[in-house]
Amino acid sequence: MAAQVVACFLVRFDVHVGYELVWQDSVDKYFADGVEFKALPSGLHSVPSDTVVFTHDCNGKKCYGLAVFHQNNALGSVDPNGGSGVDRSQVKMYSLGILIDPEESNTAWKLQATSKIWNYRSELTELVKSFVYDVDEKSALENVKSFFKKNKLGNSVTKIDAASPNAISNSSDHMIDSLINLYSRMGPLIYKLWRLCLLRKRILIVSNDDTVGDLCKFVYCMSVISSIPVELKPKLYHSGARVDEVSKPAFNFGISDPPHFSNWIATTKDEIILQKTGMWDYVVDLNELGITGSDGTKYWATPTDLERFKLVYPKLVDSHAEAPDFSRICENSWEFIWSSLKWWASAGEVSQPFDLEFEFDDVTGVMTIVVLMGYFQKMTTRIFSVLIGAINDDEMVTLDAQDLIEMGLDGYNESDWQWVEQLVETWWGFKVKRVGILSDLCCWG
After folding, report:
1. How many CA atoms lie within 13 A of 197 on its CB side?
2. Phi (first) and psi of residue 108, to 5 degrees
3. Separation between Cα atoms, residue 127 and residue 150, nearest integer Å
């Protein structure tokens, strides 16, 4: 397949002058100008190494960038002249990176193209270390130029498809390999985040304890599991849904370079962005494990989410493992109790929301990740299939509690009802009419 690198660049942080774009080369019409402010992690003085993924505007074309940062940890060295400050002559901080254009990919699934940029991380890491630890920077730069010549757009190279199971199994460092870690850390709250992604909101994932590279992988994982299955898209188009406005991974950004498109999921280490509530809709804090809206509202997992997590978690990590206690991040359980009573009173005719989902039996290794991806895709298909069947020309979608249960939701949970109403409004521009004798019971409390 064709290489996708459209630009390559070297950025240095000089303790005297700040950010410097030391060198760049690019294919025609692509330029790396401005990447020096994106290619270095925030708080770089305390970061020995990291990987930054970001978006970059190249003459109106949206490109994805990856930069590998490394420093020689000389900030604690003693000034040889006897001063009390840092020996600035010894400090070396570099980021070496590339840009790719997903539109030049030979895959119809553009999200897959973004993950391919991670394939270059290992080679970039070795190259950037030469600038930090070797004396001959001229020779190091020649190696970078050779790397770009070999991998730039238009050259014929052979690479493993970044989305295939073989690619994941042959590498211990793939963007999707963080999915099980993210699922385990977020617990049932990951279902709430998945639903917010389907609403095309502007979502930030933040953590003080994770590297930028790890957070970018989490962003990619959420983008994958909240993507629309290929086989579902024609049905959505036919129903009149606004399919093209799906959420996109913006990866990492700072206060000076917010995403130049809407409907994104991203991360940041720039704390001032968290104070700029007009820039985002929701923040997911992995340290405190919570989701907060821009208006300060806290969002919780539903009891159904908790029950679903308890069923899935042991099949992902260990068949004998007990799921951690995440009850503190869930809504009150009275609505789930009511739903269970309704199921009992109907002699089981009302299916439980998680009855129809994937089986994880006898799945190990890389296939666990593949099945977990498919699990979320199946839930997405389940929701939209019910809604497509309910859409008509009245601009009013009539639903009852059983419809929500068929979607895999709780038909007696107010937050699930509100989410469905937002989903219909976002994708079709229609309103929802709740019907049925029991349709108002979810509003109790």
Report:
1. 28
2. -75, -20
3. 14
**Residue 50 in tokens:** 């990291």
Per-residue pLDDT at 168:
43
Q: DSSP code of 104? A: G
Nearest to 223 by CA among 254, 179, 165: 179
Relative to beta strand 203-206, strand 264-267 is parallel
Q: Give pLDDT tens digits for 102-147.
A: 888 766 666 777 888 999 999 999 999 999 987 788 999 999 999 9
- Whole-number Å distance between alpha carbons of 399 and 411: 10
Instruction: Judge contact between 200 and 155, C-beta under 8 A.
Output: no
User: Please, what's the b/e burial string for 252-271 (b: 16 or more CB within 10 A of its CB; e: otherwise)?
Assistant: bbbeebbbeeebbbbbbbbe
152 in helix, strand or coil? strand
* Assigned token pair, 12: 């240095």
The rounded distance, in Å, linking the Cα atoms of 63 and 353 is 40
Mean predicted confidence (pLDDT) in 22-39:
90
CB 313 within 8 A of CB 274: no
CB 68, CB 46: distance < 8 Å:
no
Neighbouring C-beta atoms of residue 173, cutoff 10 Å: 14
Percent helix, strand and coil across the chain, each to the nearest 5? 40, 20, 40
What is the Cα 380 distance to its own chain's centre?
16
Among the listed residues 296, 261, 268, the one whose alpha carbon sits nearest the alpha carbon of residue 282: 296
Single out the residue of 5, 14, 1, 7 nearest to residue 40, CA to CA: 14
Phi, psi of 58 (to 5 degrees): -110, 95
Dist CA 392 CA 413 (whole Å): 25
Computed over its alpha carbons, how large is the radius of gyration of the chain? 24
